[in-house]
Amino acid sequence: MSGGGTETLVGYEAATGGGDKKRDSLGTTGSPAHLIIKDLGEIHSRLLDHRPVIQGETRYFVKEFECTQLLTQSVDSNRGSRNEKRFIMTI
Q: What's one Pfam family the UniProt record gives for this protein (predicted)?
């Protein structure tokens, strides 16, 4: 601050000792509370976030459907060509 007087640290800066280290509301990054919150986030993502599983199941379903559809189309086209051959032979 200007004026040549002494500066007084207020609030956050005074609590952290001048702002040398960055702190959040839980303390430093390696604090036990921060690690527990991080672990809870990982547990939540593994147990309760089903998006990766659903996406995998959806990809599998689409792949199987496409394979079945291609197989059905090829069988239908073979039947059609056989019917054409029979029709030509009978004429």
A: Muted
Residue 13: the pLDDT is: 45
Q: Tell me, what amino acid is at 37?
A: I
DSSP-assigned beta bridge partners for residue 24: 27
50 and 61 Cβ atoms separated by less than 8 Å: no
Query: By 3-state DSSP, what share of the chain in percent is helix, strand and coil, each rounded to 5?
Result: 65, 0, 30
Which residue type does 54 have? I
Give the pLDDT mean for 44-69. Answer: 91
Q: What is the pTM of this model?
A: 0.41
What backbone phi and psi angles, to 5 degrees, belong to 16? -95, 0
